[in-house]
Design brief:
Length: about 230
Amino acid sequence: MGRILFLISIGLGGAAVLISLGVWQVQRLSWKQAVLADITTRIAAAPVELPSQADPVAMKYLPVAVTGTFDDQVIYVLVSQKQIGAGYRVISPMVTDAGRRVLIDRGFVRVDERDAVTTPTGAASVTGNLHWPEEIDSFTPQPDLNANIWFARDLPAMSKTLNTEPLLIIARETSLPDGPVTPLPVDTAGIPNNHLQYAITWFSLALIWVGMTLVFALRGSRRRPERPNL
């Protein structure tokens, strides 16, 4: 009897821990959904003029509208798009009407269409969102400057190479003619939200734990006592 009570106590204790972890993930899911909803609202807000002083925290995803002319320099950042395949983000410097040099992420071009990318001529307007990508880590290769292929949007390095402010606008809409470059606007698709899967995992483990506890308890209750030696 003592063995069965011990198994039940272990089973209930373990299940309680696993269920509490599942509940915590449900709470995290609610929090993350609120964060994503707030980001979505900020991304889609009405654009404003480019701020004179940009705060990477307070102004992340801030919608802005700029006009100016594009420089003939360009950086290609290697990326991949679902159902399309490999390609590049096209990063070009723009000289705004106010005389500022900023980076414009013009969008995506397929690998086999890179040679068709040209420098926009004349005045252009861009509506997009400020962004400070965090894509660099210790495993990121150095850019292949000879082939002009970068493997992440390293904002400080790109701004230094193209002699611009460390300010990046991800284009949502442009006045540029249709061409091989397609805008790749900011969205929340790349922000992970796996809390529902985690919650299901913890609740499933709790159910399995309870089931195993019941199996062991039933086996223990059915075990026959050993016969005494005569």
